[in-house]
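User: Fold this; tokens only.

Assistant: Input:
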Amino acid sequence: MFFWAPVSPNSPVGTTTEILIPPGFSSFVGSVALNAHGAIVGNLSQPSGLNVPFLYADGNLYDISQIDDSLAGGSATGINDLGQIVVTSASGTFLLSPVLSQRHRER
């Protein structure tokens, strides 16, 4: 999957970043949402066929289902500019809110 970001709002010039499929997964099912900070949520497929939600932020890809077992098989459906992520699964719909690290609190 590729992510293109303009150098400034509405610019035709930008940078392209390739987001690689992490080990243990077979494919991207798709990216679903992007916020103003460049964080992306979407879904990955495991070889077993189970889909899991992911977050791509700051150059890292995270398996959101690692937060709680009830999110496995779920789908990330949105992310806002606060970093809150909506995930739906067989267990329900969840709003995940980030906890800021000490580094972010000091900014």
